[in-house]
Write a structure and sequence with these properties.
333 residues, alpha/beta, Rossmann fold, 2 domains, four-stranded parallel β-sheet, 14% strand, globular
Length: 333
């Protein structure tokens, strides 16, 4: 797909990263990065968190849900911090308040939204406008965040993966397009098998852990009203695996990266004790086409596209439209 002019392009993110680092220099340099949002947007920030956390030698990074950030603000939010806030509509009240709180404390604030003129972007030091649909995959939020993370690591530490990350970004449209097509048949089979289920659990680790989380809380619970919980593959054997039984459905996201052992361990157990295991494996969806040194960081983008095929197909088979709500945007909360 072609780049949309009204959206931030990857090349523009390099300049944004430079300006954010320049602002942090006034306070002694960038030391901490806080990823702040709610729900699916919080999950969408996780590729940035995972990239920096696993590759940095000097930066601290963490993810915090927005309202907790407001009411229990980390002491490290100061002139040495970058606070990255994200909301698709740019109007999520908790995230807007978090952005203002970060600004009050002298942190550099980067706001991401699908629109430029929204409450979230008011007062932000920098803005990234991302695409939600009908745009290049390079202009989606997670891809732009990976570009940002790569630039921060490159400029702060001379990160060796910088060039490979740029190459991977250029391949995203082809890889995601092929993955979506390949997912159609297994997604339909999954949807037909599980359209009447009252519960579906999700499991994943590393770059897949928050994809399992957003699939659970947003697509299954919020949109399809299916009871669910997401489990980290590494935590699965420390409590949750006791609910495994015949007829209990699990959706397992397998990373092709460094945490694959955790996912395979969970999958091997599930295969023995439930007959309702669905695997979505990064190695089945073209990740080997991306540079090996950075491929795992792009798994949430590619497998996120695949997961969306699964859940929208499930919605169609259930005859339960994604946008139908009982409470969200309808009652006071």
């Amino acid at each position: 797909m072609k780049m949309q002019e009204n959206l931030t392009a990857p090349d523009q993110v390099a300049a944004i990263a430079g300006r954010l680092l320049d602002k942090a220099k006034a306070g002694g340099g960038l030391r901490r990065v806080y990823c702040v949002a709610c729900g699916g947007s919080l999950g969408g920030l996780y590729p940035l968190d995972y990239l920096i956390r696993t590759e940095t030698k000097s930066l601290f990074v963490t993810s915090v849900t927005a309202n907790e950030f407001v009411h229990a603000t980390p002491a490290g939010v100061d002139a040495n911090a970058l606070v990255v806030v994200m909301s698709m509509a740019g109007t999520t009240p908790e995230t807007v308040r978090a952005a203002h709180r970060a600004k009050e404390l002298g942190a550099a604030v980067l706001a991401l939204s699908s629109k430029k003129e929204v409450p979230l972007t008011e007062g932000a030091d920098e803005i990234i406008v991302y695409g939600a649909e009908n745009c290049s995959w390079q202009q989606t939020n997670q891809a732009l965040l990976l570009k940002l993370g790569g630039e921060l690591l490159h400029r702060c530490e001379g990160w060796a993966g910088h060039e490979q990350l740029q190459q991977a970004l250029g391949q995203l449209d082809d890889v995601c397009g092929a993955a979506i097509q390949k997912a159609a048949a297994p997604a339909l089979q999954f949807a037909q098998l599980h359209r009447d289920d009252e519960v579906i659990y999700t499991v994943g680790s590393g770059p897949m852990s928050r994809l399992a989380y957003t699939t659970c809380i947003c697509h299954l619970m919020e949109m399809e009203w299916i009871n669910s919980s997401s489990f980290h593959s590494g935590e699965f054997f420390h409590g949750p695996f006791e609910i495994t039984d015949k007829g209990v459905p699990f959706l397992l996201f397998l990373s092709g990266g460094r945490t694959r052992f955790l996912d395979e361990r969970a999958g091997n157990f599930l295969a023995r004790y439930t007959d309702q295991l669905e695997r979505i494996d990064a190695r089945d969806y073209g990740m080997d086409r991306l540079p090996a040194g950075v491929a795992e960081f792009f798994e949430p983008v590619v497998l996120g596209a695949v997961a969306r095929v699964y859940t929208t197909t499930l919605a169609r088979e259930k005859k339960h439209p994604f946008l139908y709500r009982k409470y969200m945007f309808k009652v006071e909360y």
